[in-house]
Amino acid sequence: MAIPPSSAVAVVSVLSIFVFSFPATVLSETFRQIFLPPPAFGPESIAFESPGGAFYTGVSDGHIFKYQPLTGWTVFAFTSPNRSVAFCDGTTDPNKGPICGRPFGLAYNSFTKLLYIADAYYGLLVADSNGRLARQIATSAEGQPFVFLNAIDIDPVTGNVYFTDASAVYDLRNSSKAAQVNDSTARLLKYDPRTSQVTVLLRNLSRAVGLAVSRDGSFLLVSEAIGNRIRRYWLTGPKANTAEIFLSNINVVRPQDIKRTPSGGFWIAAASVKQDSQTLVSIRIRVDGSGRITEMASLEGQYGSTLISEVQESGLSLYVSSRNASFIGVYGP
């Protein structure tokens, strides 16, 4: 049953957001919340069908919901063949993930109408327009099983699917242990829909949790939350199949997901340390294709100490997801 958008959206009056730009400026924009249907919680990622139109998000109980501006939320799909309504619906317990599933990264192919899913426990999956149980298409690469699939994106030129395995040792339930030991066993991978072949592109990454392919398909960016940096991996040209540091030493921590912008840049979700309290607050960062920071804004006014997962530009708005919240945040003009 669809939940009407009028009951699912809360709008906050116009607010001012301090932007640590170069130079710093103050922007005025509205902020609204698209609340998930209770008791759903933890939208990790967002995938749009079209700019400003319908979108998908995965939540903590293993469901993938679809939001349509005119009709609201509906259950679209799930990733685990073992999940049950009684055991899974509404759960936020990560220990139930191996049974219920936990969709993290989502990427929609507007040409094939397929939704690709990186599930923390069930690997790489795909759902067609009918939804329901997603089809599992990969659980390992080069003989090594996936442990914690996280980020995903689709090459806009070739249709290849790129995704990350955040660790070869520590799954979602043991994320804190990975940070304690500075785990660097993550991998960057490619799935070719034409051959169904999975290829390992990079190894020994430090918690690879973000990924975005450039607008022209010449390179991709992958974020390392433990390494506090972003790498560029070249897909075409004279540097093809090589990697380099794209962004580091920018006084932020835990860079999360990355999303390309319509203009060819990228949005990065991250955190910054407040100097007065030494606590973490969420920030959004916009960079151009050369790694130059064009905006760095605090989201503390709307999210407090809640950390975000993703910032994505669609239509005239920015959509923000967090696996620590019960809503999608929308910043608009």
Can you offer a commentary on this structure?
InterPro entries: 6-blade_b-propeller_TolB-like, Strictosidine_synth_cons-reg. With 333 residues, the protein is mostly beta strands. It has a domain at 1-35 and 267-333. It contains five helices and 28 strands. It has helices at residues 5-8, 85-88, 97-100, 175-180, 300-303; strands spanning 9-19, 25-35, 46-48, 55-58, 63-68, 72-78, 103-109, 114-119, 123-127, 132-133, 135-138, 140-141, 144-145, 149-154, 161-165, 186-192, 197-205, 208-213, 219-224, 229-234, 243-248, 258-260, 266-273, 280-287, 293-298, 310-314, 317-321, 327-332. It has a five-stranded antiparallel beta sheet with strand order 1-2-28-27-26. Strand 8 and strand 9 (123-127) form a beta hairpin. It is globular, with a radius of gyration of 18 Å. The protein starts with a helix and ends with a strand.
Short description:
Pfam families: SSL_N (PF20067), Str_synth (PF03088). The chain has helices at 5-8, 85-88, 97-100, 175-180, 300-303; strands at residues 9-19, 25-35, 46-48, 55-58, 63-68, 72-78, 103-109, 114-119, 123-127, 132-133, 135-138, 140-141, 144-145, 149-154, 161-165, 186-192, 197-205, 208-213, 219-224, 229-234, 243-248, 258-260, 266-273, 280-287, 293-298, 310-314, 317-321, 327-332. The protein has 333 residues and is mainly β.
